[in-house]
Amino acid sequence: IAHGYQKEIVGIMGENVTFPVQIDQKIVEITWKKNKNKVAEWEYPNKPTYFGHLGNRSVLMENGSLTIVNLEKDDAGIYELVYWDSVNEHQLNFKLVMLSLLLDSLPKPEINCSTSDDELVLNCTANFQGSLTYTWKLSNNPHRYQNQELSIPLKNVDITTNATCIIKYSQTERSSEISLIQCLP
Protein backbone atom coordinates (compact mmCIF):
# COMPACT_ATOMS: atom_id res chain seq x y z
CA ILE A 1 0.00 0.00 0.00
CA ALA A 2 1.38 3.35 -1.02
CA HIS A 3 2.81 5.64 1.62
CA GLY A 4 0.61 8.56 2.62
CA TYR A 5 -2.56 6.83 1.45
CA GLN A 6 -5.53 7.95 3.55
CA LYS A 7 -8.85 6.22 3.88
CA GLU A 8 -11.65 8.40 5.17
CA ILE A 9 -13.87 6.98 7.90
CA VAL A 10 -17.01 8.74 9.14
CA GLY A 11 -17.82 8.49 12.84
CA ILE A 12 -20.99 9.43 14.71
CA MET A 13 -20.95 10.93 18.20
CA GLY A 14 -21.62 8.38 20.94
CA GLU A 15 -21.28 5.41 18.59
CA ASN A 16 -18.36 3.07 17.89
CA VAL A 17 -16.06 3.08 14.90
CA THR A 18 -13.61 0.45 13.69
CA PHE A 19 -10.75 1.24 11.34
CA PRO A 20 -10.97 -1.51 8.74
CA VAL A 21 -7.62 -3.25 8.64
CA GLN A 22 -6.89 -6.63 7.16
CA ILE A 23 -3.36 -7.79 7.74
CA ASP A 24 -2.58 -11.23 6.39
CA GLN A 25 1.06 -11.42 7.49
CA LYS A 26 2.09 -12.52 10.94
CA ILE A 27 2.52 -9.35 13.00
CA VAL A 28 5.41 -8.91 15.40
CA GLU A 29 4.64 -5.41 16.59
CA ILE A 30 1.88 -2.91 15.98
CA THR A 31 1.37 0.76 16.92
CA TRP A 32 -1.64 3.02 16.45
CA LYS A 33 -1.19 6.79 16.68
CA LYS A 34 -3.60 9.67 16.50
CA ASN A 35 -2.12 12.94 15.25
CA LYS A 36 1.33 11.45 16.02
CA ASN A 37 0.44 10.50 19.63
CA LYS A 38 0.37 6.82 20.57
CA VAL A 39 -3.06 5.33 21.20
CA ALA A 40 -2.24 1.63 21.42
CA GLU A 41 0.77 -0.62 21.04
CA TRP A 42 1.08 -4.36 20.83
CA GLU A 43 4.30 -6.33 20.97
CA TYR A 44 3.37 -9.94 20.44
CA PRO A 45 2.95 -12.19 22.35
CA ASN A 46 2.32 -9.69 25.18
CA LYS A 47 -1.00 -7.94 25.76
CA PRO A 48 -1.74 -4.61 24.07
CA THR A 49 -0.90 -1.39 25.93
CA TYR A 50 -3.14 1.68 25.67
CA PHE A 51 -2.17 5.34 26.03
CA GLY A 52 -3.76 8.73 26.57
CA HIS A 53 -7.44 9.68 26.81
CA LEU A 54 -8.34 7.27 24.02
CA GLY A 55 -6.74 4.43 25.94
CA ASN A 56 -9.82 3.55 27.95
CA ARG A 57 -12.09 3.78 24.88
CA SER A 58 -10.08 1.82 22.35
CA VAL A 59 -9.73 -1.87 21.60
CA LEU A 60 -6.90 -3.27 19.49
CA MET A 61 -7.76 -6.57 17.82
CA GLU A 62 -5.50 -9.45 16.85
CA ASN A 63 -5.81 -8.58 13.14
CA GLY A 64 -4.59 -5.01 13.72
CA SER A 65 -7.94 -3.22 13.56
CA LEU A 66 -8.65 -0.56 16.16
CA THR A 67 -12.12 0.12 17.54
CA ILE A 68 -12.96 3.33 19.38
CA VAL A 69 -16.10 3.24 21.50
CA ASN A 70 -18.44 6.06 22.49
CA LEU A 71 -17.00 8.55 19.99
CA GLU A 72 -16.43 12.17 20.99
CA LYS A 73 -16.11 15.23 18.80
CA ASP A 74 -12.39 15.51 19.53
CA ASP A 75 -11.71 12.00 18.25
CA ALA A 76 -11.61 13.40 14.71
CA GLY A 77 -8.14 13.42 13.21
CA ILE A 78 -5.50 11.44 11.39
CA TYR A 79 -4.90 7.91 12.66
CA GLU A 80 -1.78 6.07 11.68
CA LEU A 81 -1.16 2.35 11.93
CA VAL A 82 2.43 1.13 11.81
CA TYR A 83 3.14 -2.58 11.99
CA TRP A 84 6.18 -4.75 11.65
CA ASP A 85 6.04 -8.26 10.19
CA SER A 86 9.67 -9.09 11.20
CA VAL A 87 10.88 -8.21 7.68
CA ASN A 88 9.26 -4.91 6.76
CA GLU A 89 7.53 -2.01 8.40
CA HIS A 90 4.12 -1.10 6.97
CA GLN A 91 2.04 2.00 7.41
CA LEU A 92 -1.66 2.77 6.91
CA ASN A 93 -3.34 6.12 7.42
CA PHE A 94 -6.95 6.85 8.20
CA LYS A 95 -8.78 10.13 8.52
CA LEU A 96 -11.61 10.04 11.03
CA VAL A 97 -14.24 12.68 10.28
CA MET A 98 -17.00 13.21 12.82
CA LEU A 99 -20.40 13.36 11.16
CA SER A 100 -21.61 16.29 13.28
CA LEU A 101 -18.65 18.41 12.16
CA LEU A 102 -19.19 17.28 8.59
CA LEU A 103 -22.87 18.24 8.64
CA ASP A 104 -22.05 21.67 10.03
CA SER A 105 -20.02 22.22 6.88
CA LEU A 106 -22.72 21.05 4.46
CA PRO A 107 -23.12 24.07 2.16
CA LYS A 108 -26.10 25.29 0.17
CA PRO A 109 -25.80 23.85 -3.34
CA GLU A 110 -25.04 26.07 -6.32
CA ILE A 111 -27.20 25.94 -9.42
CA ASN A 112 -25.88 26.71 -12.87
CA CYS A 113 -27.95 26.64 -16.01
CA SER A 114 -27.23 26.74 -19.70
CA THR A 115 -29.27 26.40 -22.86
CA SER A 116 -28.50 24.57 -26.04
CA ASP A 117 -30.54 24.52 -29.25
CA ASP A 118 -33.35 22.48 -27.86
CA GLU A 119 -32.92 22.09 -24.15
CA LEU A 120 -32.30 23.82 -20.87
CA VAL A 121 -29.70 22.12 -18.67
CA LEU A 122 -29.59 22.70 -14.92
CA ASN A 123 -26.54 21.63 -12.96
CA CYS A 124 -26.26 21.40 -9.19
CA THR A 125 -22.92 21.42 -7.37
CA ALA A 126 -21.80 21.51 -3.76
CA ASN A 127 -18.30 21.79 -2.34
CA PHE A 128 -18.39 18.95 0.16
CA GLN A 129 -16.17 16.07 1.33
CA GLY A 130 -18.82 13.36 1.58
CA SER A 131 -20.88 11.60 -1.08
CA LEU A 132 -24.14 13.44 -1.63
CA THR A 133 -27.48 12.54 -3.12
CA TYR A 134 -28.88 15.19 -5.46
CA THR A 135 -32.60 15.69 -6.08
CA TRP A 136 -34.35 18.15 -8.39
CA LYS A 137 -37.88 19.41 -7.83
CA LEU A 138 -39.81 21.59 -10.27
CA SER A 139 -42.59 23.78 -8.91
CA ASN A 140 -44.99 22.69 -11.69
CA ASN A 141 -44.24 18.98 -11.40
CA PRO A 142 -44.77 16.59 -8.46
CA HIS A 143 -42.07 14.23 -9.74
CA ARG A 144 -38.59 14.37 -8.19
CA TYR A 145 -35.49 13.69 -10.25
CA GLN A 146 -32.53 11.98 -8.57
CA ASN A 147 -29.64 13.43 -10.49
CA GLN A 148 -26.98 16.11 -10.33
CA GLU A 149 -28.07 17.41 -13.73
CA LEU A 150 -31.55 18.04 -15.08
CA SER A 151 -32.41 18.61 -18.75
CA ILE A 152 -35.71 20.11 -19.84
CA PRO A 153 -36.71 20.39 -23.51
CA LEU A 154 -37.01 24.12 -24.28
CA LYS A 155 -40.48 23.65 -25.71
CA ASN A 156 -41.59 22.43 -22.26
CA VAL A 157 -40.04 25.26 -20.28
CA ASP A 158 -42.61 27.30 -18.42
CA ILE A 159 -41.03 30.60 -17.38
CA THR A 160 -43.12 30.74 -14.20
CA THR A 161 -41.50 27.54 -12.93
CA ASN A 162 -38.92 27.39 -10.17
CA ALA A 163 -36.39 24.59 -9.92
CA THR A 164 -35.04 23.47 -6.55
CA CYS A 165 -31.92 21.39 -6.05
CA ILE A 166 -31.77 19.46 -2.78
CA ILE A 167 -28.56 17.88 -1.56
CA LYS A 168 -28.59 15.32 1.20
CA TYR A 169 -25.88 13.79 3.37
CA SER A 170 -26.99 11.28 5.98
CA GLN A 171 -30.24 12.83 7.29
CA THR A 172 -29.29 16.45 6.63
CA GLU A 173 -30.52 18.44 3.63
CA ARG A 174 -29.72 21.81 2.07
CA SER A 175 -31.44 23.31 -0.95
CA SER A 176 -31.26 26.18 -3.43
CA GLU A 177 -33.82 27.48 -5.88
CA ILE A 178 -33.69 29.17 -9.25
CA SER A 179 -36.38 30.56 -11.50
CA LEU A 180 -36.22 29.10 -15.01
CA ILE A 181 -36.72 32.55 -16.54
CA GLN A 182 -33.21 33.43 -15.22
CA CYS A 183 -31.77 30.69 -17.42
CA LEU A 184 -33.21 31.79 -20.72
CA PRO A 185 -31.09 33.87 -23.06
Automatic annotation (TrEMBL):
It comes from the Eukaryota. GO terms for cellular component: membrane. The keyword Signal applies. SMART domains: IG. SUPFAM superfamilies: Immunoglobulin. It holds the Pfam family ig. The keyword Chaperone does not apply. It is found in: Membrane. Residues 6-99 form the Immunoglobulin domain. InterPro entries: CD2/SLAM_rcpt (IPR015631), Ig-like_dom_sf (IPR036179), Ig-like_fold (IPR013783), Ig_sub (IPR003599), Immunoglobulin_dom (IPR013151). Its main location: membrane. Keywords: Glycoprotein, Immunoglobulin domain, Membrane, Signal. This is LFA3 protein.
